[in-house]
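Incident review: delayed structure delivery

Summary: a single-chain prediction request sat in the queue longer than the usual turnaround. Root cause was a stuck worker, restarted by the on-call engineer. No data loss occurred. The affected request and its eventual output are reproduced below so the record is complete for anyone auditing the incident later.

Affected input:
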Amino acid sequence: MRVPRPCSLREQAVEHRRGFPAGRPLHRRIVAAVNVRPGEFESGFEVAPGVRVAPDAIRLDFVSSSGPGGQNVNKRATKAQLRVSLADIPIAEDARARLAGLAGSRLTDEGVLVISADETRSQKRNRDAALARLRELIVRATHPPRVRRPTRIPRGAVERRLDAKRRRSDAKQSRRPPESP
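Output delivered after worker restart:
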């Protein structure tokens, strides 16, 4: 039995092109690791202005994609799936609740936010798109909504509305046949 070993994206693609080893299912999920430069995220990954997440809190998988790409989608794992737990994002509790509301169906029962991107044929552009979506969600959640201050209806508007109702009523009254005593 073959023991899986960590391999580069190129090696995965070669293995995929040659065919699947015996005993492995034909429809398998291709997962690739993120290629990052050494030291790129050691101090934390800035997902939004002033919000840094530990590098091990974000999980980024690449899976085989549907969508544009022709035969390329059968050969490459280009769909980016970004997973991050809401508990690992260092924001205020009210912002975390707003983020959970904004996430909607992208939030799992365990509190993990799953963002997918498969618009392009490139892993890097899909990864950047997924990170941009996460950034946008966090920015929208960190800004509290404006409090609506109820305003009064101006007296002139009320008077104009009542005057128009009165005129309409008079016009309809004038169309009625006279009442007989």
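Verification: The chain has five helices and five strands.
Action items: add queue-age alerting; document worker restart procedure.
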